[in-house]
Amino acid sequence: MRLADTRPPFAGLANLSEAALAALPTPCYLLDEAQLRRNGELLLGVQQRTGCKILLAQKAFSNFNVYPVLAPYLAGTEASGLYESRLGKEELPEKENHVFCAAYRADEFAELLQYADHIVFNSPSQLAKFGPAAKAAGKSVGLRLNPECSTQEGHAIYDPCAPGSRLGTTRAQWDAAVQADPALPELLDGLHFHTLCEQDADALALTLAAVEAKFGDLLPRMKWLNLGGGHHITRPDYDLATLEKCITGTQEKYGVQVYLEPGEAWALNAGYLVTTVLDTLQNGQTHLAILDMSAACHTPDVIEILPGTLPKIIEKLSGKLPVPLIAGGLMTDKCDIVSALQAGALCASTSEETLWEV
Question: Going by fewer Cβ within 10 Å, which terminus of the chain is more open, N or C?
Fold first, then answer.
């Protein structure tokens, strides 16, 4: 279930005067420290009531200048690779340091062992390749699961449980790997799944049931279970009761330490992109504003397709993606622009000045 945010826009800027806003260099991101703390307090409350540990997924929020603001509320950081793990170690050395990567590089793994204390592998082959070194270094080792339970609505392209997904290990893959290498289970301390995206706790409950159905026999031997990210815990009307029931029920039933690794929830509604209107104009019934920012660089709620001369790809993606598409690159004449727009692009971007008035 996706949630609608009912709070008024720019609520965090209520005490910021227009003069103060006007004095800011633009474009810039403006962070609301009070909202960051409110989010942190809510997440800390979940940890205190349930005994779970909540990590900061740095791929969603890695503004390390405000890590000291969040430090009192989080148990550690979650990284998607070597450099995020290093960032967590350098900025929050006293906190836990978890990392998951779809595939690790052999030439980086020794350095990663200097930073991470929990290392999650995506596949049995990665576990077999790097797991022994991780265990020898005293690290807690985990495996990412694919419970084959899709809860995404209209986001199949991003769904880790979609058919053919590269993320996570299915039960069939695990059974085949153990049959070939019976020592694999001895490497594991924990299990991990990440299947949600900006969703409520009902999707977690459904996914957790699928994990139990497929992998429940492995859980009693584990020390921890990571429920991944995508939990919109700090969003208005999020079902905290169901979340906490999932956490406490799992910990009591299997004796595991439960982790969560939200990213956006830590900084939700705590930041603004401040930009300056450089010019305004009207073309027919359309009122336009020219800003000193770029959609491609600052607001990735729009996807730019390069090159823009691929109408079949544009048409295919426009039917699957929930955000507008901008076609750009290698557009040399009016036909290129018309084809892109007819295929579903919101607009076209080109450096060819003769096409700007098309």
Answer: N
**54 or 317: which carries more pLDDT confidence?**
54
Distance of alpha carbon 320 from alpha carbon 168, whole angstroms: 23
Q: Which residue has the higher pLDDT, 10 or 27?
A: 27
Phi, psi (deg, nearest 5) at residue 30: -110, 120
CA dihedral 53, 59, 65, 68 (to 10 degrees): 0
Q: How far apart are CA 341 and CA 339, in angstroms?
A: 6
**For residue 111, with 0-12 CB atoms within 10 Å meaning exposed, 13-18 middle and 19 or more buried, which class applies?**
middle
List of E strands, 284-351? 286-291, 303-305, 325-328, 347-349
- Are the C-beta atoms of residues 215 and 147 closer than 8 Å to each other? yes
**Spatial distance between the Cα atoms of 24 and 272, rounded to a whole number of angstroms:** 12
Strand partners, 46: none
Instruction: Please give the pLDDT value at position 329.
Output: 74
Q: What is the mean pLDDT of the chain?
A: 89
